[in-house]
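Task card 7
Instruction: Convert sequence to structure tokens.
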Amino acid sequence: MKFRDKVITEALVQKTLRAEGKAIPSGQKKYARLAGGLAWIICGAGAFVIVLIGMLSGSYYVFFILLFGVLSVGGFIQLITGRHLISKR
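Output:
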């Protein structure tokens, strides 16, 4: 099973448990946290690289810095909470 399929399956299980009003066990948050951590690292690094390029070239790409920054914060929140926020499943 691919990582993508595992994330989707886990998100559907979380959605079902929330609909039933049950607590989500920590075992059902594994892939949400992993995906959130990856998004946090990749988007944070992307924003950092864009800032470095802006410092070297003298022109800052504010839209892209903010975009990657917001995605990075979303990934961090998903990492902490264990809920599928970015994929909206």
